[in-house]
Amino acid sequence: MGNFHKNLICSDPLSFFFDFFCFVIESFKCMFLIVGALPSFAFNNTKSFHFVNYSLNWTEAQSVCRHAYSDLATIENTADVIMLRSQISNNKAWIGLYEDLENDWRWSLNDSSFYGEGERTFRNWYSDQPNNLNGQEYCVELFTLGNSGRWSDEVCSLNLSFICYTTGRK
């Protein structure tokens, strides 16, 4: 793949790039993100949070986090909330909590061996949340407006900044 032709770059459906004459037109999507990482906060050297100041819907944000880090942020306790709300300047950002098909709230990181006692069930909802307004709110955003750190359910197709999570188990 030496780019012999200098400006000929083709992509196959599996996203491999080649430098040969392109005879077949394929559709593809390229995305470059500038990822701004929060300072790493090691609570026992097993995790750090990374704020991404780029707006994507929840599913796209999850994909980016899984590719570049471990997953969308899992917030396990009040200490995590306090740390995040003090570091994020945007008003709101996606976290990894979502409502599944059985109407249960689950974390995107679905490795039960990762969670300690009570960490999987920690919630920090605003009052009257989650409310599933119009039956369409299945994803969760963290609000930092007013330094609250509270959560609200939201329509998953909304484009927001997001928080990724790195674990020692990636």
Secondary-structure element order, N to C: EEEHEHEEEEE
Structural class: alpha+beta
Number of domains: 2
Mean pLDDT, to the nearest integer, reads 76
Quaternary structure state of the chains depicted: single chain
In total, how many beta strands? 9
Proportion of residues in β-strands? 25-35%
- Which parts are unreliable, with pLDDT below 50 for 5 consecutive residues or more? 1-34
**Biggest sheet: strands, sense, closure?**
7 strands, mixed
CATH superfamily of the largest domain: Mannose-Binding Protein A, subunit A
| Global Rg | 19 Å
Sum up the overall morphology in one term.
Answer: globular
**Architecture per CATH nomenclature, i.e. the level-2 architecture of the largest domain:** Roll
What's the CATH topology name of the largest domain? Mannose-Binding Protein A, Chain A
Distance between the termini: 30 Å
Question: How do the strands and helices of this protein lay out in sequence?
Answer:
Elements: E1 10-11, E2 17-18, E3 47-56, H1 58-68, E4 71-72, H2 78-87, E5 92-99, E6 105-107, E7 137-143, E8 151-155, E9 160-167
Parallel strand pairs: 5-9
Antiparallel strand pairs: 1-2, 3-9, 4-9, 5-6, 5-7, 7-8
Outline the structure in words.
The protein has 170 residues and is of the alpha+beta class. The protein has two domains: 1-30, no CATH class; 33-167, Mannose-Binding Protein A, subunit A (Mannose-Binding Protein A, Chain A), CATH 3.10.100. Helices cover 12% and strands 28% of the residues. The chain is built from two helices and nine strands. A hairpin with a 5-residue loop joins β1 and β2. The longest helix has 11 residues, at 58-68. This is C-type lectin domain-containing protein. It comes from Gouania willdenowi (Blunt-snouted clingfish).
